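anyone else get weird line breaks when pasting these?? whatever heres mine. first is seq + tokens for prot A
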Amino acid sequence: MRAVRLNELGGPEKLRVEEIAQPQPGPGEIVVKIARAAFNRRDVFITQGLYPGIALPVTPGSDGSGRVAALGDGVSGPAVGTPVVINPEIGWDDDRYTLTANAKILGMPLDGTFAEYVVAPAINVFPKPAPLSEDEAAAIPLAGLTAYRAAFTRGGLTKDDVVFIPGIGSGVQTMVLAYAVHAGAKTIVTSGSDEKLAHAKTLGASFGINYKTNPDWHKEVRKLSEGGPTLTVDCNGGEVFARSLDIARFGGRVVSYGGTNGDAKIRPFSIFWKHLSVLGSSMGSPSDFAGMLALFESGLKPVVDRVYPMDDVVAAAERVLKGEQMGKVVLAIA
């Protein structure tokens, strides 16, 4: 089969399309014929060596949609030919609500979805939400799961919230916006791009602030939220995370699922004086994945930025590396 392979580190230009052996299902496993896959920032980080436990060669990709191609021993379904999406996170202990010591993720260390076929445990393969196209279905797994757990499971998002979403444009933050709008909450987003802010408005964002042209963006967020956001979902870390604590409303929640901008120098006073709940989140459980899919069954749509042929994988990766996308960058595998 054809697959995108990373044989050495050095950035997106090291990605190559090659012929490799097609995987076969073991007991309890399913082989999925991939139609569409999608990029996450972790795929680019891996090419740069900026991810723990890298072992090469590997087929990247955590997100994928397609059809069931083969069932391993002991697997009763979904039946061959069923349109499906894959939960890429393998080894979550739903009882303890944490990752187990043996947890793995498709795309690293396991071979992932940037290939014509991928193998996964049967419990990780779910019927595709009927309202979604193949492109849209491929866009939801890891970003949708991460956003769902951060916003709902950890953040307790409701219609009564004022939600601050810094750095709109990434796959996860765009999903957080979709969830908040779907819930009926008021939303405030920031970006360094007026184009992304305008797009966010069309997706339902209540307010948008350009942090490059407004260095006092945090003061504007506090003003627009009439006393501070009740819920912030942050992927940035650094100064953005520190400012988010400072402007949060009394009794507010600040959820962190990433640290793209590095470590933060925070004021404990902002946390204890305002009785803030500061919550960590990363990816999500099988229960979170099922809850996420139910939202998309109800008519919610993810944002697809662009669709690239598999042979243009380097250009697709570079778009993600430069942060030019609004939503998810998708690879057409078949």
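and prot B, same format (seq, then tokens)
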Amino acid sequence: LGGQIVTTDGAQNTVRDYRTQLSKIKTANPDYIYMPLYAEGGTAAMSQLKDLGIKTKVFGGDAWSDPAFQKGAAGKGDILFAEVKTGENADFSKKIMEKTKSTQVPVGAAQAYDAMKLAAQVMKKTGTNPDAFADELRKQDYQGISGHIQFDANGDLLNGLYIIKRVQADGKVVEVK
């Protein structure tokens, strides 16, 4: 869409000091910062981003669905993240929340459940031969807890849907329409 990457950098997932990377980003002055960190690292990075006076919008991945990140990063920038959109299944959600003793279904729980069910279904036909498994998996047309699952000839998911959410200054999360 006409954009360009002005700088790239990385860090181990255990790092909690991102000032060096953020200083480079500040100098590059991008329109957006893509920062696919886990919740704890993302929280630290957002605090440091604010301390450095960086006002650039930040975009992260589904790990930022974690309420701990949302609480810790609230008010520290314009924060957006992508989250997998799944079908609603009240029975599955209730069972997961009971099992995890939580008020929220963990991100990716429905997809992980479907992946295991689908893998078991395919293994019943192919055994554990990886080539036969891959070939059979690509043929699947599966309706699961997370929605409809189908693959193309390369094994890429045909119908993965994502939604974009924003962490507001008060920590409330809203879907961006």
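btw re prot B: The longest strand covers residues 79-84. The chain has a mean pLDDT of 92.
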